[in-house]
Specification:
By secondary structure, this protein is of the alpha/beta class. Helix 9 runs antiparallel to helix 11. The longest helix is centred in the middle third of the chain and has 17 residues. 31% of the residues lie in helices and 10% in strands. Strands 1-2-4-3-5-6-7-8 form an eight-stranded mixed beta sheet, sandwiched between helices.
Length: 508
């Protein structure tokens, strides 16, 4: 049995609030020119065998009510009363637009995060740096998207559609430049919107936008590999817990979870943290660490708090809540590590299995592998994005990302996958990444977001002046106690129990 580092015994209490960074909506207020009288007309003609999401859309599961329209309205910020606000409905999606009096001619598109299990409600967010945008003269716009769930395809289409309709809605000139930013699933929307594969398809549908720069934050930059990560963790949990799966989607999930919790923790309900583990639970701890981005200083603080979130995904059928028509989770390329170093990210196109120990080889051979149905997320027809658009790392504009080091819902490994794909496609100099020392998903201080945006637009104006970032693929650097200190602004010591950079010490 391998020994845990002493930092592993630290813990922080994280409830489902870890997800609020990507789920929260923006506030609103006064009325502007929101479209009235919107009625969803039920299609009722969904083809047999269609994906579940198509049934939801065709049967108006995401209809917009008068209350939704009212909620989309928003008022000016103090000190920016001269800015113009617009809200309404475009192609079955709510929108917000704000233009400062000193508009510089540029438009920032804001892409919101995941909305799941929220029934009929469509909601639209304000960008987290709204005040900064207005101060600098940027207009911004945001869409609710016309559907909830993990529908990145709809997110890209509706965000771009709103950008292309900006002038018609506002009566102003076409923007001179478009930028795009987003949180969580909105980070996936952001990354997908700038990929050549997707842009070609969008152009076929007259929905392409020529963005000048992008800022995905806490984003799903590994596209479908996020769901491979969820599947891989739970398959490892079952096997190490003593009731391994022999099929995927797994059967009798409740029993498997109960068995794992009983065998891997001393008392899961009382203490799901690392210092409550026993037996093979310590192997599970190391496996999750490597699946989520490798050894890093903030990981120990989030291990226990994310267990409910990760284990709640154990009964997934692989269709991503009906976004796909068939099972799309793939863990066949995953290498589970708990003794050797994770020197390269797990990638389906370039699996990395070198350097495993004998014990790791045995465990890897024992864990059941999920294999996707052929073309579960393959290319589709002319003008039709994949159900879950790909992020191949082929972008041609400046991209600056932020990511929380201790996030295990959308893990730090998403950044490593993004970096490796950018390298594989010869454009690493267009990607700057910054690690933020927080365990909460999409939790950034205003200073962190504003600094990133300031650096991004300066870079876009002078492409040779690449801003500073973190080397997310240097395993030794990522494992250092002070990793993430360079761009973390704000002390999470009180809020999350995390040591400050200046005071960080491994406990005795």
């Amino acid at each position: 049995m391998i020994a845990l580092k002493r930092t592993a015994y630290l813990s922080v209490a994280i409830s489902t609030i870890v997800l609020t960074g990507c789920l929260s909506g923006g506030g609103g207020g006064g009325s502007d020119d929101a479209d009235a009288g919107f009625v969803c007309e039920t299609q009722g003609d969904t083809a047999d065998g269609a994906r579940e999401q198509q049934f939801r859309i065709d049967n108006c599961d995401f209809r917009i009510t008068d209350e939704d329209l009212k909620a989309a309205e928003f008022s000016s910020l103090a000190g920016y009363e001269s800015a113009t606000q617009r809200s309404g409905v475009l192609n079955d999606a709510l929108y917000r637009i704000e233009v400062p009096e000193n508009w510089n001619g540029q438009l920032v598109m804001w892409a919101h995060g995941f909305r799941g299990g929220e029934g009929t409600s469509l909601t639209v967010d304000n960008p987290p740096n709204r005040e900064q945008l207005l101060e600098l003269g940027y207009a911004w716009a945001a869409s609710s998207y016309r559907a909830n769930y993990y529908d990145v395809k709809v997110g890209v289409e509706d965000t771009n559609r709103l950008a292309l309709n900006f002038s018609d809605i506002t009566g102003l000139a076409e923007p001179t430049k478009f930028l795009i930013a987003g949180y969580s699933m909105g980070g996936h929307v952001t990354g997908a919107a700038i990929e050549p594969e997707n842009r070609q398809v969008l152009a076929e549908a007259d929905l392409d936008v020529n963005y000048s720069a992008a800022m995905p934050m806490c984003g799903v930059m590994g596209d479908t590999t996020l769901f491979d990560y969820f599947g891989a963790y739970n398959l490892a949990l079952f096997e190490l817990g003593g009731d391994g799966a022999d099929i995927f989607p797994a059967d009798d999930v409740a029993t498997k979870l109960a068995t794992a919790r009983s065998n891997l923790w001393i008392d899961y309900d009382a203490n799901p943290n690392a210092n409550g583990l026993q037996g093979s639970g310590f192997v599970l701890y190391q496996i999750l660490q490597n699946l989520s981005g490798g050894e890093r200083p903030v990981y120990p603080f989030g291990f226990g708090g994310y267990q409910e979130t990760l284990q709640d995904l154990a009964d997934s059928d692989g269709t991503i809540d009906g976004i796909l028509t068939d099972q799309g989770v793939d863990t066949s390329y995953i290498t589970y590590r708990f003794e050797s170093d994770q020197l390269q990210p797990n990638l389906p196109e370039t699996p990395y299995s070198a350097g495993q120990t004998q014990q790791e080889l045995f465990v890897n051979a024992s864990i059941y592998r999920a294999v996707p149905e052929p073309d579960a997320n393959g290319p589709r027809g002319i003008g039709e994005l994949r159900w879950i658009p790909k992020i191949n790392g082929e972008f041609t504009i400046p991209v600056l990302t932020l990511h929380n080091l201790g996030d295990l819902f959308v893990p730090f490994s998403m950044q490593q996958i993004y970096r490796q794909r950018a390298i594989n496609n010869g454009n690493p100099n267009l990607l700057v990444q910054r690690a933020i020392r927080s365990v909460v998903h999409c939790e950034f201080t205003t200073a962190e977001v504003e600094e990133a945006f300031t650096d991004l637009v300066a870079w876009e104006q002078n492409i040779a002046a690449i801003p500073a970032g973190d080397d997310v693929l240097d395993a030794a650097a990522v494992a250092e106690d002070d990793f993430g200190c360079a761009f973390t602004r704000g002390d999470r010591l009180v809020m999350q129990g995390l040591p400050t950079c200046a005071s960080f010490q491994v406990p005795l």
